[in-house]
Amino acid sequence: MENTNPFEKPVSKDEFNGYWIPHHNAKVMKRGLEENKAPFLPDASGNIKAEPIYNGASGYCLPAGRLIPVQFAKMENGYNSNIVFPRSTVNALENSIKENEKGVFYNFKDEQGEIHVASLFFPEQTQNPEGIINASKDKIQQMDNLKDVSMVIASSEPKEYLGTYIAACRSGMKLSVDPQIAEEFKGKIMPTLENDIRDPEKRDKNMPSLSNLLFEAEKRGSEICRTLAAENGQSVAPKKKQPEMEMCF
Predict the structure, then answer these.
(1) Which residues contact 218 (CB under 8 A, 6 or more apart)?
(2) Distance CA 143, CA 12 (A)
(3) Which residue among 85, 95, 107, 173 sits deepest, i.e. has the most Cβ atoms within 10 Å of its Cβ?
(4) What is the pLDDT along the chain (249 residues), one digit of tens a residue?
(5) b or e along 71-104 (b: 16 or more beta carbons within 10 Å of the residue's beta carbon)?
(6) How far apart (Å, rounded) are the C-alpha atoms in residues 125 and 179?
(7) Residues 131, 133, 6, 107, Cα dihedral to 10°
């Protein structure tokens, strides 16, 4: 079994799931905001390039709690692909992960409700990138039904800001924001990130975690997509049922 424990000393599964993954995601996002390098921040013209990343196993755009960390990994490593795969899917397609490659960790629940940890990998991290991309092409559910719609992020509240960004990723709509709104957003989300970076015993338990925030942004993004689709006489209902949203830590 893959050893996904990054600690030098052994830790329990609960500590790994409940501390390290949220800690790492918050740390990466905080650094990106400080360097003004984040997928949901605007360019000099105020435009935001909202790009979906798909799960090659299901064909659907990743939920916010996985999408944002994976987008940061794409930016940091210079990957070109907009699709990722669990290790099990890579192996099932008779491919393999390159030596020393690390995936993006995430949590998931099994049928008994027990929480596990797994990783997502970009094709560039496999021995046969082109092969795994071609093998998954027919599965990808392209989400561009609102590609002719333009929207401006009007609120700096993290749930609304990120929810609008998620909606753009899921629908193909054009997105922009006033740079001042983006700066205000950075200031409002920073306390959440700083809190998640702290040791568990030092965290403010009354403050929503990044996982909570992304879960709420995912729901808000879905609401925005439904509203805009209805206004444009369209539907965002998928061809087949999508997996239910879940929040793990």
Answers:
(1) 63, 64, 65, 163, 166, 245
(2) 39
(3) 85
(4) 344 444 444 545 555 555 678 888 999 999 999 999 999 999 999 999 999 999 999 999 999 999 999 999 999 999 999 999 999 999 998 899 999 999 998 877 778 877 778 899 999 999 999 999 999 888 898 888 899 999 999 999 999 999 999 999 999 999 999 999 999 999 999 999 999 999 888 999 999 999 999 999 999 999 999 999 999 887 655 544 444 444 444
(5) bbbbeeeebebbbbbbbebbeebebebeeeeebb
(6) 35
(7) -130
Only one residue has tokens 């989300």, namely: 189
